[in-house]
Amino acid sequence: MLQQQDLMEKIVSLCKRRGFIFQSSEIYGGLASTWDYGPLGAELKRNLKEAWWRSNVFERDDIEGLDASILMHPSVWMASGHVSSFEDTLVDCKSCKKRFKIEYIGSKNKCPECGGEITAARQFSLMLKTHIGPVEEAGSLTYLRPETAQGIFVNFQNVVNSTRRKIPFGIAQIGKSFRNEVTTGNYTFRSREFEQMEIEFFVKPGTDEEWYAIWVDERFDWYTRFGMKKENLRKRRHEKTELAHYAKACTDIEYQFPFGWSELEGIANRTDFDLKQHMKLSGQTLEYFDDETKERYVPYVIEPSGGIDRSILAFLVDSYKEEKVRDEKRVSLSLHKKLAPIKAAVLPLLRNRPDIVELAKTLADDLRKERKVMYDDTASIGRLYRRQDEIGTPYCITVDVDSLTDRKVTVRDRDTMAQDRVEAANVKRYLADRLQ
Ligand code: GAP
Predict the structure, then answer these.
(1) Which protein residue's CA is at the shortest distance from atom 2 of ligand 1?
(2) Which atom of ligand 1 is nearest the CA belonging to 311?
(3) What count of Cα atoms within 13 Å lies in the side-chain half-sphere of residue 209?
(4) What separation in Å is there between the alpha carbon of 246 and the centre of ligand 1?
(5) Range with the lowest mean pLDDT among 117-131, 249-263, 335-349, 383-397?
(6) Is the peptide bond before 354 cis (omega within 30 degrees of 0)?
(7) pLDDT at position 2
(8) For 89-148, where are the alpha helices, taking DSSP H only?
(9) CA 373, 379, 385, 388: dihedral to nearest 10 degrees?
(10) Distance of CA 200 to the CA centre of its chain
(11) Which of the residues 178, 269, 275, 379 could staple to 128 if both were Cys, CB 3.0 to 4.6 A apart?
């Protein structure tokens, strides 16, 4: 059994060594709590977004997609309440100099780590400021969005008008968000720049609680559908005191990370708070007219809001496996096939045989037209398998001496390690059938 601390260290080391995640600006000593996705991380991230988009925007008939700007009119953030209330209350320890959110300070009012005296509480805004235009003055101030949601709210009427959607329906968006997080740590879990996958689902007031319950289950199931172990997931309903300023109810889907149960996604009942606020500050109506019942109302909103980076971390942790195979340690990532960064690797059994190498390269070139496929001949076959297992490649295809005459190759399954002898000409179909 892997110790949880070890597991986290192993994931961080694997991610760096194999090119999933690097520290941002590493050659300059790094920039705290910002991360870069390397070649494999970039693929994993694309696959995760694709999986989410497909499940919500393609497979459902009640959600439209959107891609709004990161920069928005500063009034948006006045209306949303972020300028006035998106902040952390923090204290510093006068002895060890560590900084804590006020909620982590117990009734003793001492540093939770060293017991030292703490400073008075101070407010820190989580909004990252920027200026638009050449002159930095008050009028040019705006913010990098701290959530993608507001881009959806301000486009609600545009989407209704352009798609003729009827309520209930949702708008989905994936994009970067920025928060000047003061208490960071736990690798990519709390970053200053991160990506969100959010849906604002507009419903008729009075049906909101029903839709809220539907979405909590729907989102929980989504993670298990992509292979996350059910026992590592749980739902946690927020206490009234925990709720964000806009929410009437919220349930977190939490994952059992090596550092403890922590939020992966939140499903909130945002009521009509945001649309009403935008009506107030913009002077525009964001009411919906139901032409069947002739009713006019401001819709309520159910918001499933997940983090791409946290999901990636959870999927990596969840799929990491160490086992003994023929007295050797085997490390593998049992990532869902849709998420795996490389779908297949073509490996020649003898790299000093030009005829075998040529056949393998030709096969890899052909397979590459359809999916991300790797060719590797830089080590012995045992080593090549281990390399692919460690990054979660579902299929390894070996080309051997017999392949030259029978035109067949061996396809090895990552999870069962079963091997199939397949006609080289049929490998494309073989993969297509199994990677669906
Ligand atoms: N629009 C609602 C909203 O933004 P949130 O709970 O603050 O709600 C939603 O964020 C999700 O975004 C979280 O569940 C998490 O997955 C992700 N997230 C939030 N802050 C993050 C951070 N600093 N680093 C990485 N992911 C973050």
Answers:
(1) 305
(2) 16
(3) 2
(4) 15
(5) 117-131
(6) no
(7) 66
(8) none
(9) -40
(10) 17
(11) 178
Residue 116 CB burial class (10 angstroms; 0-12, 13-18, ≥19) = middle
Domain hosting residue 402, numbered range = 342-434
115 with 138, same domain? Answer: no
**Residue 266 CB less than 6 A away from ligand 1:** yes
- Looking at the fold, whether 51 and 168 belong to one and the same domain comes out as yes
Please indicate, yes or no, whether residues 152 and 199 belong to a single structural domain of this protein. yes
Choose one of 194, 199, 262 to mutate for the ligand 1 pocket test, by most ligand atoms within 8 angstroms of C-beta. 194
Tell me whether residue 137 is in a domain: yes
pLDDT tens digit string along 174-223?
999 999 998 777 999 999 999 999 999 999 999 999 999 999 999 999 99
Residue closest via CA to ligand 1's atom 16 equals 307
Which CATH number belongs to the domain containing residue 8 in this structure? 3.30.930.10
Are residues 66 and 119 both part of a single domain? no
Residue type present at position 397 = I
In short, whether 43's Cβ falls inside 6 Å of ligand 1 is no
Q: Which among 310, 312, 313 is the best mutation to test ligand 1's pocket, defined by most ligand atoms within 8 Å of the CB?
A: 310
Q: With a threshold of 0.85, does the pTM exceed it?
A: yes
Distance 196 CA to ligand 1 centre (A): 7
The reply to whether ligand 1 has any atom less than 6 angstroms from the CB of 270 is no
CA of 306 to the centre of ligand 1 (A): 6
Mean pLDDT of 76-102: 86
Q: Is the CB of 194 under 6 A from ligand 1?
A: yes
Task: Name which residue sits closest to atom 18 of ligand 1, judged by CA.
Answer: 307
- Which among 95, 171, 86, 151 has a CA at the least distance from the CA of 123? 86
pLDDT at 230: 98
Identify whether 304 is part of a domain: yes
- Closest-CA residue, ligand 1 atom 23, reads 190
Looking at ligand 1, which residue's alpha carbon is closest to its atom 10?
305
Report CA-CA distances (Å) from 392 to 175, 189, 222, 238, 336: 26, 21, 20, 35, 9
Separation of CA 343 and ligand 1 centre (Å): 30
Residues 283 and 427 in one domain: no
Do both 99 and 151 map to the same domain? no
Q: Which residues contact 71 (CB under 8 A, 6 or more apart)?
A: 130, 132, 142, 144, 145
Convert the pLDDT of each residue in 2-11 to its tens digit.
677 799 999 9
Atom of ligand 1 nearest to the CA of 192: 23
Cβ(286)–Cβ(299) below 8 Å: no
Comparing 103-112, 174-183, 337-346, 353-362, which segment has the lowest mean pLDDT?
A: 103-112
